[in-house]
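User: structure tokens for this one?
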Amino acid sequence: MKTLVMLALLAIPAALMAAGPAVVPENMMQAMQKVQECMAQIDQSQIQEMEHRSARMEGEIDQLCAAGKRDKAQELAMKYVKEIESLPAVKQMQKCSELVADIMPMTEDLAVIDEDDDDQGHVCD
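Assistant:
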């Protein structure tokens, strides 16, 4: 989930740049250029592997949830999140999302999801 939020946030500057310089102030254009340069450093093969593994993991978690093994499903999901967070590509995405937060401060709260936050609910819900 955290990764999906970051990917969505990273798409915002590209969409704004497509609007053209008449819509976007020069200083914001420079900041978005930095974001694009940051994003260009993301290892796309790691992202693709992460997407494939995430799909497999989702299937496993769904099976555990369906079998009533909620605690095991939650444990597996959290283990996978920690594993994903250690990937260099994800660390680079986090770095890029910080640049986005600098450009668009209202996105700052969206970029961080606290795994200890009880309001997030359970993976099976």
